[in-house]
Structures are given as structure tokens and as C-alpha cells.
Write a structure and sequence with these properties.
Blueprint (H helix, E strand, L loop, with lengths): L2 H40 L4 H40 L1
Helix pairs in contact: 1-2
Length: 87
Amino acid sequence: MNIDQVTEVVREGVWVALKLGGPMLILSMMVGVFIAIFQAVTQIHEQTLSFILKLTVVILVLLVGGGWMMETLLEYARKLFALMAMR
């Protein structure tokens, strides 16, 4: 493998990681902001409230998009194994 192929594999790996982790991180961050605003307005400072809601959002994202995430990861792995087999 030359340096261009290695660079392409690493770039694609970072892109796959962003595609897989991005939706969960963005949605849990949005829930965290909304909960922080709610807690500031109501002066309820319960730490488990934000944790449970963030956990629920992450589980829902995994249930809804888990198939797509797995297919994306498998496609990337197949490309890597195909590159290794060519060597």
C-alpha cells in the first residue's frame, strides 16, 4: 500500500466514525441543553434527570438507526478486507 491508499483508508474511517457517532452525540447534546434550560427555569437540579433522558435518546437512536449504522460499518469493513486481500 502506498501513502495515498493509507490516507484514503484513514480519511474514510474518520468519516464513518463521524457518521455513526454524530447523530447520537448531537441529539444527546440537544437534550442536555434543553434539560439544563428546564432545570435553570424550575430550579430543579436533579442530576439523574439529564442522564436518564440522554440515555433514552441514545437508545432510541440506536433502535431507529442501528440497522443503517451496522450496514455502514460492515461496508467499511468489507472495503478494508478487500484491500488486505489484494495485498
